[in-house]
Design brief:
- The structure is a single chain.
- The protein is 24% helix and 33% strand.
- It has a four-stranded mixed β-sheet with strand order 2-7-6-4. A three-stranded antiparallel β-sheet has the order 1-3-5, with no helix packed on it. Strands 8-10-9 form a three-stranded mixed β-sheet.
Length: 225
Amino acid sequence: MPTRRHVFAGAAAGLRRRAARAAGAPKAVVLVVAALVATAFAVTPAYADDPGLNCAVTATATVSVTPSPVVYGHNALVQWSADCVNNTAEDALVISGPGFNPSTTSFPVGGGSRTVFIDRPGTVGWDVTVVDLSSDTGFSRSLASVSASVTGVTTVPDVRGDTQAQATSALAAAGYVLGGVGSVVDCESVNRVRSQSPGAGTVLLPGSPVSITLGRRPTPPAECK
């Protein structure tokens, strides 16, 4: 494979021959020079002698998640595959999204998968970026991305006004457990849930605890009026 020196030497020789034929036509010579320089760079890319940068510039990738849509409070499988020209240890993949920490973890250019836990509602997504780790470039490029909507989102039921037994049952039906149980003097809510935490309608992972506060009578000799 010709080196840059060979390419430019050949270009220079060709320039001299064309310049001789174009004597008396300075504009033609300028056009020939421009065409030869452009051709030389097209034949020999600027990154051809840098394997790390070569991989980063030519890399392609795919990424997917299953199931799609994903389910709130459950695991999903993220899979990726990437390839490039002249793959070296100077190159790595950085993946961002739930279950990944791009600031601390990278992966070799190639294929892989990871099981991730879906702990947020709405839409979740993952991005794959290739990075040239060599100190002289620090080049990076986004390769692929995927997103999925989150289904099965659960919220805390409203148990205010329930007895402790009723609250426990309602929470269990919604996928939660009874957490701490406190009490406060409240003659209008004796033995009933006066408040709860988290509040009704809060998006919360299944299996999480919900605390309640019951109303109670004052300590004698005080009495409810």
